[in-house]
Amino acid sequence: MERISASTIRRLSGYVRVLDDLVQQGESIASSKELAERTGVTSAQVRKDLSHFGSFGRRGYGYEVDSLRTAIRGILGLSRRWRVAIVGAGNVGTALFSYKEFRARGFDVVAVFDNAPERIGQRLGDDLVVEPMGRFAEIARERAVEIGVIATPARAAQEAADVVVGAGVKALLNFAPRKLAVPRGVTLRDVNLAVELESLAFALRAGAR
Amino acid sequence: MERISASTIRRLSGYVRVLDDLVQQGESIASSKELAERTGVTSAQVRKDLSHFGSFGRRGYGYEVDSLRTAIRGILGLSRRWRVAIVGAGNVGTALFSYKEFRARGFDVVAVFDNAPERIGQRLGDDLVVEPMGRFAEIARERAVEIGVIATPARAAQEAADVVVGAGVKALLNFAPRKLAVPRGVTLRDVNLAVELESLAFALRAGAR
Questions:
Q1: Which member of A101, A106, A192 has the closest CB to residue B177?
Q2: ipTM of this complex > 0.85?
Q3: Which of residues 131-150 of A touch B (CB under 8 A)?
Q4: Concatenated DSSP letters of A44-69
Q5: Which residues, at least 6 apart from B11, have a Cβ–Cβ distance to it below 8 Å?
Q6: Higher pLDDT residue, A170 or A38?
Q7: Quick check: B191 and A194 CB within 8 A?
Q8: What distance separates the 2 farthest-apart alpha carbons in chain B?
Q9: B107 bridge partner residues
Q10: Packing angle between helix B65-76 and helix A193-206, nearest 10 degrees?
Q11: Rounded to 10 degrees, what is the CA torsion of B82, B157, B202, A30?
Q12: CA-to-CA distance for A30 and A109, rounded, in angstroms?
């Protein structure tokens, strides 16, 4: 499969959401214009993104909502569920644990870790307790963790990432405001919430949209 | 000033973080190569991004860390503080309230709102209590709110956004998994945490980096 950019993936995620809504509304056909308007991109962009993966629509007819949705979900790896561990049981970690959209989208949090003695053993939801970081490798293996979420303070983030990667986890989502080093073959995505606010500050300052 | 893309803004935020670190380490000069390596982009990209704003470096010498940092902070609108209101005092809203990086980066949460009777009046930190949504316009005016953060469930997000925009707030950061409609002249940024996980799922599935 050809290399696909992170921004294409983000748009594909957006199309899946719109297609989910259309299915719920009982729609069976969608035009690229409709997908474009509902996701905030151009029709040309929609057609280009979908063309990476073969031919889903018919000219002058539109896309079949249900089969396009199944196809994109398959492409994104969403036709199965994924097993996620969160490192850091502070405000960010516990909010992520409770974030319903993760489960709705196929991501199950199967373990939460922390180093702080007062947090270890704390109950989370119905099934989990906060586990000590020292047990990461063992528990990650038992529970077949595939994705690690770093939700520690900045100063602890690299050490946490090293433990997660050392346990064989190949994908990291990092919420700590620190650039992490990971070996080749490990995929890292950074979520920096302050960056989004900075981009708004810029827009306000520039008077741009 | 020419139009600058959201991804350029994100990279500029990244450069500021690296420059902050360099200042702390007592470094006075940085090369584009160094900025590039620490932010994970190419040197050519660094030079291109900075060229939008005039000439900060000298060939064969590098950038003056302190003055480049001040300049980018000014460009991003970070040489002043910004006043933020959070709508939704659930898990996401309270985690955002406690997210220290916001304050560190110049964003002060000056009000938190909710509709649920059991949340209204709840204390947050030292100075705030959760306010009812019905008082949004009044409080936003009193406290000069400039940025609204939507942290409600999906079904309540558009209504919340309408109230925020109706009160004259021109910038929204949306954490609800719902595409919001806002009038021209209002800047909207979406943060969809599930999308980031989906992008990792794709990488794992594709066996890409």
A1: A101
A2: no
A3: 146-147
A4: HHHHHHHHTT---EETTTEEEHHHHH
A5: B39, B41, B45, B46, B49
A6: A170
A7: no
A8: 63
A9: B82
A10: 70
A11: -130
A12: 34
Residue listed under structure tokens 């460009």: B75
Encoded tokens for B153: 């469930």
CA distance B64 to B66: 6
Q: Cα distance from A124 to chain B (closest Cα, Å)?
A: 13
Rounded to a whole number, what is the distance in Å from the CA of B196 to chain A's nearest CA?
A: 7
Contacts of residue B191 in chain A, CB cutoff 8 Å?
191, 193, 196
Nearest residue, CB atoms, B200 vs list A101, A187, A200: A187
Mutate to test the interface with B, among A2, A112, A202 (most CBs of B within 10 A): A202
Q: What angle do CA B102, B82, B174 make, to 5 degrees?
A: 65
Sheet architecture: strand order including A57-58: A29-30, A62-64, A57-58
3-state class of B111 per DSSP?
strand
The model's pLDDT over A74-120, given as tens digits with 9 standing for 90+, comes to 888 888 899 999 999 988 898 889 887 888 888 999 999 999 999 99
Q: Which of residues 169-208 of A touch B (CB under 8 A)?
A: 170-173, 177, 179, 184-185, 187, 189, 191-206, 208
| Angle at the Cα of B101 from the Cα atoms of A111 and B153, rounded to 5 degrees | 60
The domains located in chain A, with CATH, are 6-76 (1.10.10.10), 82-195 (3.40.50.720)
pLDDT-derived band at A138 (thresholds 50, 70, 90) equals very high
